[in-house]
Automatic annotation (TrEMBL):
This is Acyl-protein synthetase LuxE domain-containing protein. Gene3D superfamilies: N-terminal domain of ligase-like. GO terms for biological process: bioluminescence. It comes from the Bacteria.
Length: 336
């Protein structure tokens, strides 16, 4: 089988596996090293970056030593293993008005692997039930990875000038469990537009929120937002989840409840690094998140983010927000 097929075979049977540890795993490491060699050979900007650091497939022996490209590089370089013209989809970060946006070039092979990853990752956490998306559909947001993801999951999109009445009508008519997926900003915007309105959704219904407020709208604490889910939708905090993803990543993290840690599937690993030394932080010490995603087939599998995090003793990590000075961005800006 090809490398992409081998990665897909590793991802697909893992849908019901427990959360991956932060290190170890001979299969993950073997695939990561093979993918690094492929990307080094075909992604020329990344190759130059690796050469500058003296880290090449000939010298790297562990997945942790694969050079992590800065997330900002997606704004300035075409990080793709095939010509840009052969990529049917290009995901962009939301960005602020007039700012540079990241570009994630998806070849046909990478796009299929992305679908495999997002479906398997979602099915690890959530049951199959109607999915409502408080996001613009792909025809209105063709470069949004989140809109593409939700369409792949079969979501019904609720968006536009009539979205408030549409959501009201849909929630009122539901007699079965559903999952409501939206940005934090979109939920607050809806609650503000419908004061005093309350629903009692089926007890098996779920809420998944993603993105923050990015300093651009009325902000509420996460605990307050989850209390609103309980009060206004009838969905208990234990049935509320958070999704953490990036346009530069092909896989997603999910957490449960107000303070649940972000958990990754087995094909996605994370390191938390001291921003000064570049070494892994000790337990309890915050640092910059670096992600290693086998589903990032056509770009780079290792990404150094501008997000801060700390390991959680329950597994996974807690997201602490953007590093000081990081540019505002995210899917909530799209909702705004």
């Amino acid at each position: 089988m090809s490398l992409a097929q081998d990665i897909a075979a590793f991802i697909a049977p893992s849908a019901q596996a427990p959360p991956a540890p932060t290190s170890g795993g001979a299969v993950f490491e073997s695939l990561a090293l093979r993918l690094f060699a492929y990307q080094y050979a075909h992604n020329l900007p990344y190759q130059r970056f690796c050469n500058g650091r003296g880290q090449t497939p000939a010298t790297v022996e562990r997945w942790q030593d694969i050079p992590a490209a800065p997330a900002a590089a997606f704004k300035r370089f075409a990080l793709t293993c095939v010509p840009e013209s052969e990529c049917p989809v290009v995901f962009h970060s939301s960005g602020t008005t007039g700012s540079e946006t990241s570009r994630h070039f998806m070849s046909a092979e990478a796009l299929e692997l992305y679908k495999t990853s997002l479906l398997a990752g979602y099915e690890r956490h959530f049951p199959s039930q109607p999915l409502l998306a408080l996001m613009p559909p792909p025809d209105l947001a063709p470069h949004s990875s989140l809109s593409f993801m939700l369409e792949t999951l079969g979501a019904e999109f609720i968006w536009g000038e009539s979205s408030t009445s549409q959501l009201q009508s849909t929630l009122s008519s539901l007699a079965t469990p559903c999952t409501v997926f939206g940005t934090a900003f979109a939920f607050v915007n809806y609650f503000d537009a419908t004061p005093g309105e309350h629903f009692s959704l089926d007890e098996s219904s779920l809420v998944i929120e993603t993105g923050g407020f990015k300093g651009r709208s009325r902000e509420v604490e996460k605990s307050e937002l989850y209390a609103l889910f309980a009060e206004r939708l009838g969905v208990a905090p234990a049935h509320c989840f958070s999704e953490y993803g990036m346009s530069e990543l092909a896989s997603q993290f999910y957490s449960q409840g107000v303070d649940g840690p972000k958990l990754a599937p087995p094909w996605l690993r994370t390191r938390i690094l001291d921003p000064v030394t570049g070494n892994d932080t000790a337990p309890g010490q915050p640092g910059l998140l670096a992600h290693y995603d086998l589903a990032n087939y056509n770009s780079v599998l290792a990404i150094q983010t501008e997000d801060m995090g700390v390991w959680d003793e329950r597994g996974g990590f807690q997201l602490l927000g953007r590093a000081p000075g990081a540019v505002l961005r995210g899917c909530s800006l799209l909702a705004e």
